[in-house]
Amino acid sequence: MKRLLLLSVLALGLSAPALAPAQAQVNILEGPGLVKAVSTNDVSALRMLLLKGENPNQTDISGKTALQIAIGNSNAEVVKMLLDGGANPNRADKQGNAPLHYAVDADDVATVDQLLKKGAKVDQDNREGMTPLMMAARNGRPDLVDRLLKAGAKADRTDFTGRTTLSWAQDGRNARVINMLRQAGAR
Q: Keyword annotations for this protein (predicted)?
């Protein structure tokens, strides 16, 4: 049937590309082109879209920003391109998690450093009141705890359930992290 339709179109003098839009399928869950390029780690498409002026702060249907998706994909090159292209290092998803939360949760030291250099708010809390420092403490990551403290994170914060950074560190069972937080004033 498609072949007959194509022959009929050609006989009428129309070009075959005229059929393309009619045959195109749309996936509403896919999101904008920039989000798709980030989701599929298509660096060349992302570069082209950013050069064309696409907004680097686009979100997918669940509210995740392109930057958060790139961090989740552990793609340092895409993260750098988005940040250099103007992505907001503090834009949170629907749960209030900022890119720094994603990077800490992924134990991605290089991305944490990039985000801090681009102005990420070190004490931004999510909808549960958790800060990136609390997450690093819970995960027992002394390297991340050290970076966040040096960037100005407050060691004595409390989340919305009343848990302190120190209590999260005790869950992580890393004596070095616990000592670092105590030295920084955590109680």
A: ANK repeat, Repeat, Signal
CA dihedral for 84, 89, 92, 97, sign (positive or negative) = positive
Angle at 27 between CA 22 and CA 33, to 5 degrees: 95
Q: What is the per-residue pLDDT across 124-147, written as a single tens digit (0 to 9) for each? A: 999 999 999 999 999 999 999 999
- The alpha helices in the chain, defined as continuous H runs, are 2-11, 20-23, 33-39, 43-51, 66-72, 76-84, 99-105, 109-117, 132-138, 142-150, 165-172, 175-183
Structure confidence by residue, pLDDT tens digits, 145-187: 999 999 999 999 999 999 999 999 999 899 999 999 999 999 8
Cβ neighbours of 157 (radius 10 Å): 19
> What is each CA distance from 177 to 88, 149, 160, 167, 183, in whole angstroms?
29, 11, 22, 11, 10
27: tokens are 């996936």
In this model, does residue 14 exceed pLDDT 60? no
Place of tokens 């890393």: 174
Q: What's the token pair of residue 2?
A: 């498609």
**Mean pLDDT along residues 97-108:** 97
